[in-house]
Amino acid sequence: MEVALAEVSKSFGAVRALREVSLTLTPGRAHALLGENGAGKSTLIKVLAGVHRPDGGQLLVDGEPTRFASPADAKAAGVAVIYQEPTLFGDLSVAENVAMGRHPTRRGGMVDTAAMREQAELLFERLGVDIDPKRPARGLSIADQQLVEIAKALSSDARVIIMDEPTAALSGTEVARLFGVVGALREHGAAVLFVSHRIDEVFELCQDATVLRDGGFVWSGPLSEQTPDGVVRLMVGRDLDALFPKQDVEAGDTALEVRRLTREGVFTDVSFDVRAGEILALAGLVGAGRSEIARAVFGVDKPDGGEVLVRGKRIRPGSPGAAMAAGIGFVPEDRRQQGLVLAASIERNAALASLNRLSRLGFLRSSAERSLARDWAVKLQLKFSRLTDPVGVLSGGNQQKVVLAKWLSRQPKILIVDEPTRGIDVGTKAEVHRLLSELAAQGVAILMISSELPEVLGMADRVLVVREGRLVGEFSRAEADEERIVLAATGVAAG
Amino acid sequence: MAVTAIRELGILIALAVVVAVTTIVNPLFLSGQGIRDLLLNACLVALLTVGQTMVVITRNVDLSVGSVLGLSAFVTADTFAVNPVLAVVVGIVVGALCGLFNGALVGLGKVPSLVVTLGTLSVFRGLDFMWAHGRQINAANLPDGFLALGSGSVLGIPYLVIITLIVLGIVALHLGSYRSGRELYAIGSNPEAAVLAGIPVGRRVFTTFLLSGTIAGLAGVLAVARYGTVDATVGNGLELQVISAVVVGGVAIFGGSGTVAGAALGALLLSTIGSALEVVHIAQFWQQAITGALLIGAIALDRSVALRVAARMRRQSRGVSA
Predict the structure, then answer these.
(1) Backbone angles phi, psi at A465, to 5 degrees
(2) E-assigned strands of B117-223?
């Protein structure tokens, strides 16, 4: 079965996640899908899986235009997906997880439990892994969960198998066995779509590749025409423009020190300093642990070990209140869920981190709340109709300005910003960048997390790269370039 | 599987302890009639737990079952004047319609079940009061043959118990051994993954509410046969007993695991404790306190197991990345 996308587009609100992307999955061939974080890979997979319907373009199965109304349709058509995040049922047995939706049945429709276990055992044997089909899926290690996902996809006799970073959690021998199985599937005429950040793996396993960048189509063709370095260049190759005006500032004293911070299974032994006037960027892949480090520094999650010092003084771990009192502000990654109260007014949101200062005898003075919001609305050039409007009606960029106003009104000495410009239009993006640069010039220490390399390179004085929960590279502004960072973040040997 | 079996064993042990202690105080507690009474008292709640279990397994809740039972009971009792067979059918159909309404809002309209059934808890009870209009229907207005259903027995086993066991058996078989039943566990265990696995989540949830309502309708018919006297307050507050029994019986309140047999045993345990306290002359209000304590104990047990598993998982995943 041949599955193809022809000039498929997909938008979420104002964000265009895919723009006229075409790709063909051919029986008997493995096709790599490559691109940086946010390039649109996951959206593309979900279109093929029937989770999203494209806004434009067509999905073709054996040349016929087809519409997958639901994941069930895609499954019925023979498409199996192994998602990056395991989608197991923790309460059910491993065997049942593999069989869910297609239980083997006896005459009369009763589920044949023995056949179900046998099926799982055979699949695990084929994969060469030792998992007890009778045990519940809850408590399996991430690697074993991933293997159960793979068994699930194999069990459905799929003609098209999509694997979204299946090897991220697997050990070397497990990866080798998986590759053996994929090879066998190809020989039986299945088409494989393979997503991985490990470029060497891609060259080992795949014959074709498609490269996406910022939701757009960059290149597609046989991998024999490419070198690993060439592919990385295609993934990142953007012209750096003058959008990011970080002023050069003489860095002052150390404002924030993080010492051997550890959270079990999430990140390990993370140490770094940020100085006043400096912008330090944490770069790395999604899921590398960058946001989790930021959350632990601010005290949202309690670390298992290590400490955070603000101007030499240790702050109480696991307490956002203590972090705020020490002068830290935190603009989270997901502003709609974590940064704002969407149904509350602009002024309420802007004042939310300053309630103590705005209250008298325990009563909040709404006049003070309003004047604070008005001041910051002017300073940040917020576009709004009334301060009493719910913040949810603002555009993404203006919402982000409200989150910034919330923290800036506290005059923080240290500001942590996680993906400060995600989903924001270009004009507002530049304003946010200018604002961060001005803050640094005023002596604020800024810790920035960003998955957009141009933003990292344009804004940061120093770049730390996080891979699998550890700091694996540090680059000064002069040393940092896209290839170095991507190579450090993906663990591909340079050269 | 093993965990739920241990839970069911635990309930049986608790039951044995309660019965043994009470029998020492009053030997009549374990007579043939005594056991029959215990089972009869537990029957209606146990029947409702069967429907509720299906709903809770999908990570939902049906708070309206007490009101559905009440409405069905009154409509049934009122229809006897027209035709006895029709009365039984109408009672069950009333329950099914109530379940259909809940199911449409939750399963197809995607409104949280807590809100929907909290609303219909009042709505259905309101309809019951409107229909009853202050009237009470007594055993004298009902045919003897029907009342025998509530008190009679075959081979010493009350009809009510037999009916409950039949419904329980059918639902247990469905949940345990049929694809659509197994899918209910998947939905409650991980709703997003259930969608990705191609399970028709909305339709399955709709069906569980429809069945829960239908079973509550049947329970309403049986309530008329058992008590003979019906007014608009029958089954008031019953939903809390039912949910307590379900949770004590080992059905996870956040869905994904549990069995109807466990839930029915939970109902039997709670009602036996109630009877036992009467026999040993402990005041009625202690019964509520003990029910509450058991409920919290059961949830604390589930929670501590879940925490232990989560901790183990984190250690394992660290082992992989290290």
Answers:
(1) -105, 130
(2) 153-154, 157-158
Asked if B86 has any chain A CB less than 8 Å from its own CB, the reply is no
Across the beta sheet with A462-467, what order do the strands follow?
A328-331, A414-418, A445-449, A279-284, A462-467, A470-476
Query: Residue B197: its chain A contacts at CB < 8 A?
Result: 71, 75, 87, 100-101
CA-to-CA separations, A32 to A35, A77, A102, A485, B172, in angstroms, rounded: 10, 21, 29, 21, 46
* pLDDT tops 70 at residue B179: yes
A221 touches B: beta carbon within 8 Å: no
Shortest alpha-carbon distance between residue B11 and chain A (Å): 21
Q: Is B256 on the interface with A (CB under 8 A)?
A: yes
Instruction: Determine which helix (DSSP H) or strand (DSSP E) holds B143, and give its type and residue range.
Output: none
Helix runs in B26-158, H state only: 32-57, 65-79, 84-103, 113-132, 144-151
**Beta-carbon contacts of residue B216 (< 8 Å; ≥ 6 apart):** B48, B51, B64, B65, B68, B69, B72, B95, B98, B99
Task: Order across the sheet with A160-164: list the strands.
Answer: A64-66, A56-61, A3-12, A15-25, A216-222, A208-213, A30-34, A191-195, A160-164, A79-82
Within 10 angstroms of residue A271's Cβ, the number of other Cβ atoms is 12
Look over chain A and give the mean of its residue pLDDT values, rounded to a whole number.
86
Bridge partners of A8, per DSSP, are A21
CB B222 within 8 A of CB B234: no
Answer yes or no: do A89 and B198 touch at CB < 8 A: no
ipTM above 0.95, yes or no: no
The answer for B 199-218 residues in CB contact with A (under 8 A) is 199-200
Q: How far apart are the first and last CA of chain A?
A: 38
pLDDT one-digit tens code per residue, A195-218: 887 778 889 889 999 998 878 888
B189 closest CB neighbour out of A75, A91, A103: A91
The one-letter amino acid at B100: L
Interface touch A140/B313, C-beta < 8 Å = yes
SS (H, E, C) B277-322: HHHCCCCHHHHHHHHHHHHHHHHHHHHHHHHHHHHHHHHHHHHHHC
**Structure confidence by residue, pLDDT tens digits, B268-308:** 988 888 888 888 777 777 877 887 887 788 778 777 776 77
CA distance B6 to chain A (A): 15
Q: Choosing among A42, A112, A141, which should be mutated to test the B contact, i.e. which has the most B CBs within 10 A?
A: A141
The nearest CA of chain A is from the CA of B267 a distance in Å of: 23
- Options 1.10.3470, 3.30.43, 1.20.1070, 3.30.70; CATH for B2-321 is 1.10.3470
What are the structural domain ranges in chain B? 2-321
Q: Distance between CA A388 and CA A379 in Å, rounded?
A: 18
pLDDT the model gives residue A413: 93
B176 exposed, middle or buried (CB, 10 Å; 0-12, 13-18, 19+)?
middle
